[in-house]
Design brief:
3-stranded parallel β-sheet; 36% helix; alpha/beta; Rossmann fold; 14 helices; 6-stranded mixed β-sheet; 372 residues; 2 domains; 11 strands
Length: 372
């Protein structure tokens, strides 16, 4: 079939018009126009803040201002001087070799410095029932009790206690040694100035302050827990060849009082350590008896006490309140007496101290800068 050009054009025109009409009526889907995606702005990188190291807090040096033996409590350099009953002692540098004539001072030194700085120890330092530094002393240099042996060690300074024989101190001084006689008190808090003095003397200020703060914190716990009301009368006695009671001014008596008891021996007029008889014990009539001596002898002595008819009506015996206590906490005069106070307070007031755990003291380097 043949069509003219004019006819073809007419047909095309009709088709185009029909298509536009269909679009207008919605019969043909038209793809929506996609909006362009916005370009994301770059995230700013935060500048990290510099890490600020905490400023180390040093020891409270103001504590040393209350130690009367320190000549200049503002001086923490060398040389430094202390004044004791032996006169003014000046050290040009921290002493490298130190000798202690007493177990109590050696226990304090062990908390403040490397034990190797001690020139020597004595045989009773290794007794585990009497000494709180038996382990440290076991492999250390050991000497006898002749002062000439101390002189031969050539220590930089010698620490004596108020109990050290005056002739021994004079001999050591005469040999050209620097001897410092430092006090030992039967009060835990009363020993604070002595510990600070020793710390200053050997250049261990931080360790001394840390030990003192530990003692004060532990004594505060005891003070807070001790109940009010009547206090038990406590008698501390030991038997070796004879029976001795610990009266006023004794280490054991101080522990009794700080643990919330009444020192029954002191209450009966006994001063220091005094020999007593069974009849005297009955007359003292204590509520509690403690026996701070080596366990082997303590067991026999306790058996004698509880089986003695003359003591049957004594409250301590009648009520089963006769107890062995560790002698190293009760008879060695040092900061370790706090352990004796803690244990005795728990024994006298079990309900008040139920569930309370007390830790042993540490030795160097667990105090002050030595632990860092």
């Amino acid at each position: 079939m043949k069509y003219s050009m004019r006819f073809v054009l007419m047909v095309l025109a009709v088709v185009v018009i029909a298509a536009f009409a269909a679009c207008a009526e919605g019969d043909v889907e038209v793809a929506p126009t996609v909006a362009p995606t916005a370009t994301a702005e770059p995230t700013a990188t935060a500048t990290p803040e510099p890490t600020v190291e905490p400023t180390p807090v040093g020891p409270d040096l103001s504590r040393f201002a209350d130690v009367p033996e320190i000549v200049d409590p503002t001086n923490y350099g060398w040389p430094r001087s202390v004044e004791t009953t032996e006169g003014v002692i000046t050290l040009d540098a921290p002493p490298e070799k130190i000798h202690s004539l007493s177990l109590g001072h050696t226990e304090i030194l062990a908390a403040l410095m490397d034990f190797e700085r001690l020139s020597a120890v004595y045989s009773f330092f290794v007794d585990e029932e009497q000494s709180n530094i038996a382990g440290l002393s076991a492999d250390h240099n050991m000497i006898g009790f002749d002062p000439e042996e101390v002189v031969a060690l050539e220590p930089d300074v010698i620490v004596a206690s108020r109990f050290t024989n005056a002739d021994t101190v004079a001999l050591l001084n005469g040999a050209g040694n620097l001897v410092v006689r430092a006090a030992l008190e039967n009060s835990a808090l009363g020993n604070v100035p002595n510990i600070l003095l020793i710390g200053y003397l050997i250049g261990a200020e931080a360790e001394a302050v840390a030990l003192v703060e530990d003692i004060e914190a532990r004594m505060e716990v005891i003070s807070d827990l001790l109940p009010g009301g009547d206090k038990p009368r406590v008698l501390s006695i030991s038997k070796f060849t004879s029976v001795f009671a610990a009266g006023s001014g004794s280490t054991e008596g101080g522990i009794i009082e700080q643990a919330g008891g009444i020192n029954a021996a002191a209450d009966s007029g006994i001063e220091g350590h005094l020999q007593v008889s069974v009849e005297s014990i009955a007359a003292i009539n204590p509520d509690v008896i403690i026996v701070p001596q080596p366990l082997e002898g303590a067991d026999l002595f306790i058996e004698e006490l509880v089986s003695n008819a003359a003591l049957a009506d004594v409250p301590a015996v009648k009520n089963g309140e006769v107890h062995y206590v560790l002698p190293k906490y009760h008879t060695t005069l040092s900061h370790w007496n706090v352990r004796g106070i803690e244990q005795l307070a728990g024994l006298l007031y079990p309900e008040a101290f139920a569930g309370v755990t007390f830790e042993d003291f540490s030795s160097w380097p667990d105090y002050g800068v030595g632990s860092e």
